[in-house]
Specification:
This protein is α+β, with helices and mostly antiparallel strands. 20% of the residues lie in helices and 33% in strands. It has one domain. It binds zinc ion.
C-alpha cells in the first residue's frame, strides 16, 4: 500500500487513456488535484515506477481504470516515503 500524502506529490495527471503529451488530459500541481489523484489511485490497480531524475520528480504512481479509458498519475518527489509504514493513518484519511 502506498503511504504517500499529497505533500509528496509534485504533480498529478488525469486524462483519457493514451497519449500523455497533454492532448488527452491535464497535468496539475494544485493540492486539490494531488489529493484527488491519490484518492483515485488507492482505489485502482496501480503500478509504481522510479527514475533517477526528471522534472523535479523521482517516479510516479499510475493506473488505468477497469474500463481502460482513463489514466491517473501522481508524480512523486525525490525522497518521498512511498513504502514507509510510519505515516499517520489520520493523515492518510484526511487525504480522502
Ligand atoms: Zn498527445
Amino acid at each position: 500500500m502506498i503511504n504517500v500524502t499529497h505533500t509528496d506529490i509534485v504533480r498529478s495527471y488525469t486524462g483519457k487513456a493514451g497519449c500523455m503529451c497533454g492532448c488527452l488530459g491535464t497535468y496539475r500541481d494544485t493540492d486539490r488535484s494531488k489529493k484527488i489523484a491519490l484518492t483515485k489511485l488507492r482505489q485502482m490497480d496501480y503500478k509504481i515506477e522510479f527514475w533517477k531524475s526528471g522534472y523535479g520528480d523521482a517516479g510516479c504512481i499510475h493506473a488505468v481504470n477497469d474500463a481502460g479509458t482513463r489514466t491517473v498519475v501522481a508524480y512523486f518527489d525525490v525522497g518521498a516515503p512511498i513504502f514507509a509504514d510510519d505515516v499517520d493513518q489520520a493523515t492518510l484519511d484526511a487525504e480522502a
